[in-house]
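Shipment paperwork, digital attachment
Item: protein structure file
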Amino acid sequence: VQLQASGGGVVQARGYLRLSCAASGRTFSNYLMGWFRQAPGKVHEFVAAISWSAGGTSYADSVKGRFTISRDKAKNTVYLQMNNLKLEDTAVYYCAAENLAAGWSRDWNRYDYRGQGTQVTVSS
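Attachment content:
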């Protein structure tokens, strides 16, 4: 299984970016797809999640109203649209997948598959 995140970069505050997570190696129909981030010296922080089949979503309070998670089943890709970016959004962003049988989780360590990250830097 591979989860490949891309789309990071350097953006000014109040700008936007769209991250992509290309998923391969298995069927994710019974999975929850999540985005996490890790700032220097901090633990992985939950950002957003989406149920692959039903499309239900969940967001961290810190990004609610600014970020939108979505998925394209035909492309096996999950997206994170990030608008109105703030300095505190600077982090490495990761995508991950968790079997829904375990329930909706915001704990990075509970996710079954975890991909490599993409750096997002927000400048003033």
